TrEMBL record, chains A, B, C, D, E, F:
SUPFAM superfamilies membership: HD-domain/PDEase-like
Enzyme class at the top of the EC tree: hydrolase
Name this protein carries in UniProt: 3'-to-5' exoribonuclease
InterPro entries cross-referenced by the UniProt entry: HD/PDEase_dom, HD_domain, NA-bd_OB-fold, NA-bd_OB_tRNA, YhaM_exoribonuc/phosphodiest
Domain annotation OB: ranges: 25-87
Span of domain HD: 160-279
MF (Gene Ontology): exonuclease activity; nucleic acid binding
Upper lineage: Bacteria, Bacillati, Bacillota, Bacilli, Lactobacillales
Protein EC: 3.1.4.-
Keywords tagged on the record: Exonuclease, Hydrolase, Nuclease
A biological process term (GO) from this entry: rRNA 3'-end processing
């Protein structure tokens, strides 16, 4: 059976989906409705459920698997599901949310294998031990969490996938610019977004945690590094630990984007630029996949609200 | 005998001073000179030593006490010392730098006493224990360090003095706005700049440390708080510890000024505003003290480069 | 009986309220409705009246007292009144708008008393006479007007209440920083927002006047001061009158916020900062009062659109 | 004899000039020198007087006419006078500063005549009376003052000349866009910079006055208008007086440039644009007159620091 | 019969109009509607067509002439047409879109005549030939196209009208400032927006073309100039061709507004300012024509979103 | 013999160097001096020649090879040559400037070879032909010119070297993100800075040309592409030519940096990011090469004036 993102306009759909979001809203006519985001492994699609009763609002919560009958339409340039019918699953039907979540295009095992290989290239023993210590501490979350609530890599395993891709880019740059400190760059890449596992609530219905909002993932990794030093008996104000902390704190590149310090060592600047490239590519690929050739994508918030043109078949 | 900042224009000076800074520069005519900042307890004054030999450059280092003969002049609107003669001190003459450093106008004992009183008003036991733990850990530095390299409170005990004054302002606000959480505000005030004792090198010839430049005092305190939690067996992601960390991380008020998060709890906003007021007052008072009535102060970097007018005798 | 802001979600309401605003809008379905803001002394609440006839639009004008039957709901995170029934009051029922307006938490008499005390501390005779002259001229409005159309202190007596609170803060600062010119600061505080009585239309249905929009309250006070000089035979270009005018013109702190000059005397900078603090505290207190612990307030326009977190019971 | 701005590079000069500015500075070698700006009716030129004694500093004050022997050179792309000899004038020699000041290229009588004609086109009686009243009050200064301390129209009669040229532009626009209120535009043009006669100290050695710095010429005209209303018994909050005040307050176009309100009536926007054009043209013409074809002018502060290219002989 | 922009509120209308835009939208109640913009020679007005069927959506396309029965209302401060009935025209009824389009207030012949006169004043032969060549190449479009999609001069002949008006302003400035190179200024004015004929799709349903979005009209004219040089055998890197290209590339005045270079010759700065004035005047006149005296216009996007006040009858 | 950039502090030097720049300046003491930049294949170093006579100024022009005796010193943190003696070369001594110019670290033949390989991967025939056509037209300059006047790649062959390195990065990205259009990306990389050969005057004493200043290298390449279309009989407004022009016009990424359009196709965004990375790496490597470990580099203009820390021996 077709997945929800594989449907063409006006194609009808009947099948199981996960409720990723279920916002209760009031229409201009004073009636309550549910603004759903449905999800299966192909991606997600919005749909509105009109005149929702209190009972229905409670029944169709985010995180539930449901059986949906509807039709794919277009609303303000975006795909939308017109809902004909919606019901909870029966006991014998599939109801594990895990089965319906969008996932990184690479398997966890492959990513884990790659990461393990890279660890051998982090030759500074302090950095190596800290990276291993923290990867081990948050192993479960690292391979499960998305890299963001929305925008880019917002799917199961997104954090590990983003990290893996950045390691590929990092290796290319190290090859082109051998003056780069490869150990430092790889350690920085692996740790830079690890704070997301504390900043976000998880992969299922991703929200910012309180500590995520009030402290933020940059400082959260930094704290983890200094505490790892305590645990591993490494002097936290030694030169190599200072530069490692700087790598993660500076990786947003600008104060305006939440880095408390701007990159002031070469590898920190490179880390920031690699992060930028992979985030841009993910957002672009995502937006372009929803757009016909010869048309413009929706405005992409993470790329200063630009909309991009998708050229017609130029080879 | 008169101190260096008490001299009027064209008044001659003879006495002992501390070399606070000694920059080696090359004049446009190709000759080397020393750009000194001399200091005694009244403040500091610049002076140029022309045609310095290599031997003189080594002899008159920053941190040395010297005997100076000269005359107070004005250079580009600022006081300047014309140097007639300069020599190192003899063994029997005063040569302890401590005797010549500018100090907070309140004695350490008085500040310590005040601080101890305030500790009793921090009724949340976690905050209380963390503040005591860190004050104890950095007690020596807290009462010795300046609050900045230059700009404001750049004198011995400046950090403690800045903190004490802010506590006074904090108490006034708590009285006016009883809805404020006084414990949290006082804990935040005491800790907010404590990272300066790691960011800066000390009171004598104040420089930024490497970790100061690459991590910064906001994150440095935050790390100290989380490590204090480990030492004191306090859960670091409990609500009260999160808001305490937020207080120190957000106190610069804007991302552009180096806070990784903007204030998002009421007391964090207040802490930022109190900090602003005391810094402004210190800079203004300092600049105005060097300016005649009816004239404009030099431009004040920390106040967006404004110069201020000093009104004539309006009561 | 409960006031409108004391109701909990889903609680029904029956009673008299004032129509503060009544905007005529057209729904997406082409029908006309009224977007009301109802008010009593506890505050205000929005409510929509669907399918309004022309007669109803004219009947339920802003400024009218009405009898409302409804239920408190939540709409997009804000309280909302679902309207069951709405009718004008009968002759024997309460219909004086004054009885339903939100008011400063301090009585006018108390504020007046305080202000009179402060006048004795303005020892410069020119400032003293000008302040008395203008307070006298606008006495009625000063104690009646709000300090703003919305945002902060938008209630009856808000202008006087804002001024009184700022005088408290001013006194604390004068005590902490005795180098401040207390007379000038107090005179500046009392006059700084007095132009609001010309800029705004009044307390009942507050709008900007034409002169408010095209000239603005900063310049309006300044004009009043120079005209008071004419009336009182004070030379308007004497030093003390210049600095007093500067106080009011500069109190927004930045050109971007509508001050034609930035603060360039010490007391003008302080006046700006005190104004900032009291406005922030009012907006924060207002927003937090509508928010549960553990939640975030709505975005606060006057605080750069931040939403604030309300910590759970941390003592 | 040649004037100072007519000299070519390396041409020698001998004659009388006015000392427009005489700044006392200290060279890097510790010696005092005088940085002069000399002036005659052709314009001004800088020159340095090395190793000035105290007596010489007092002798060669700004405002003095002197006899200068020297040579025109180039210093950092700008004309400069190398001083061979400098002496005060003898009693029988010319010593009236007025004879050496740069002046508007149009005679005062011609400008006065033009202005009088325009007054008849201001048909609104309030505006007409106010303009006449204020022109009469400041008649002497209006035709004598420059329009700025430096930048543009910084010469005797510059204010009247700037005003006259703007009236020409205003008339062209009224002809092209007959929907404009000509009375209002002309009244606004005449008054817009009149506050300069209070903001600046005069034509000879132009400085900002205290009230100029702390209040500024926009508000100063506005005050004059409201006081003229008192004198002429015109209601100052009538619609026509409000828009006239708005014209002068808004003419800098942006809050950032010191207008307390942005233009919000059509004629205010036009006034701002005309002001811009004439100021730009004056700055450009001035800078280009000092630059060879095929070269770039010095950077022009008032045009966002751009330097302009002067095309070679393209017709 | 009355035109659509001549109707007063609540006046009924029956007649032929052009569908300028027809956006398909979905209402909050899930039903599809058409958001029309109707047009006749008096201007345009919006109107909503509720519950549109697929057949109706296809029938009432942009570019069609229709017979409309309805009533002029007001929606959110703007005029709106309530649609009673809508049908296609019968064969014998008017159906040429050209008859219903808004047009420049000056006839094409008059503009053409004026332009021809100006061509004689472009005395530099290169500029003269290039301007003639390009005007000839795009003659049809130049007199047909609007000067923008919306904002200003968005009507048939808008480009030529904008150009003609700017030539008037240019001549006034040349008269006032004879140092300007009139040939260059006139050539620049005529060419500056000519790229619009490639950037936009035409006068009927104006859209940006792909090359308009991805290259933009400034560079498009520049390309045309260099290709005209090839055709006319003029050296494209001669001084006069360089400055002509600079004129068109710099005419937006700031990099932020899409000029790849800022104006760096005098005439380029003037061209930018004239362009500004005419665009502002068009937008203001347009907005004010829809606003009652004593009221504020809608916010004008092209004037930094300001709304303007329309003064009551001040003469 | 040692090259000038291989000298340590205080090491004496005797040998042949090229005068890269020779600015005539006036010292504060009124005397003329020459501010030289000397160059050999190791890089460049500044040096001041005091009290230069007119004859010496003419003798020691930029572009001359000279024999220099001097000593390497440090001036304001940068290397400087103290000049003992300077003379022109004798006929039998080396005097070809080419021998002394800094060059790309890769030989021209190698870069040419690489480029030729890449041409085969540009499979779109239009792009392929245009790239070949323009490379052929500017072959000599492409391999000779620097990529900038200063900042990055300011050496012989810098343009080709910058292009080659970017092609490496481009290939890595194409491998990682196969959805990218490789042909378009490679064509864009090769052409993006080709306009520099018109914008700059050459490799020896690099200056901006007039057309460089007034048109700029982005538009200059764009013009070349459209003219190549004419020569090759390719329709310039076909989709593939439009996107190619967009690639070069948008590659500065932001309007503020001189792109008339922001990147709006995926490959244009990638081109901009690759350009950024290589420019950053070149500037960083250059600055770090002049800095000791444990110290900070000079401020780097092209990296928002940041100075970077060079970590001590962390592996």
């Amino acid at each position: 059976m077709k997945k929800i993102r594989d449907l063409v306009v006006d194609e009808e759909f009947q099948g199981f989906v996960l409720i990723k979001n279920a916002d209760v809203r009031v229409a201009k006519n004073g009636k309550t409705f549910l603004a759903f985001t449905f999800q299966d492994t192909s991606g997600s699609i919005d749909g509105k459920f009109w005149d929702a009763s209190n009972e229905e609002i409670q029944r169709f919560e985010a995180g539930r698997v449901v059986h949906l009958t509807g039709k794919r339409e277009v609303y303000q340039g975006n795909p939308q599901m017109k809902i004909y019918k919606l019901r909870l699953t029966n006991p014998e039907e599939p109801n594990d949310p895990q089965l319906f979540m969008e996932r990184a295009p690479i398997k966890r095992e492959a990513m884990e294998e790659e990461l393990n290989q890279v660890l051998f290239e982090i030759t500074n023993p302090h950095w190596n031990r800290i990276v291993r210590f923290l990867l081990n501490k948050y192993k479960q979350e690292f391979f499960e969490y998305p890299a963001a609530k929305k925008n880019h890599h917002a799917f199961v395993g997104g954090l590990a996938y983003h990290t893996t891709t950045m390691l590929h880019l990092g290796k290319s740059l190290v090859k082109e610019y051998p003056q780069l400190n490869a150990s430092l760059l790889y350690a920085g890449i692996i740790l830079h977004d690890l704070g997301k596992v504390i900043e976000l609530s998880g992969a299922l219905t991703t929200e910012y945690t309180t500590v995520g909002n009030l402290v933020g993932h940059l400082v959260l990794v930094d704290e983890e590094i200094t505490q790892a030093c305590l645990a591993l008996n490494i002097e936290q104000n030694s030169e190599d630990i200072i530069v490692l902390r700087h790598m993660v704190l500076a990786h947003h590149g600008q104060l305006d984007y939440g880095s408390p310090v701007r990159p002031r060592i070469r590898e920190a600047e490179v880390l920031h630029q690699i992060d930028n490239i992979d985030a841009s590519m993910q957002m672009l690929t995502n937006a372009i996949s929803k757009t016909e050739a010869g048309e413009y994508t929706e405005r992409i918030f993470g790329l200063e609200n630009r909309s991009f043109y998708v050229p017609r078949n130029v080879e």
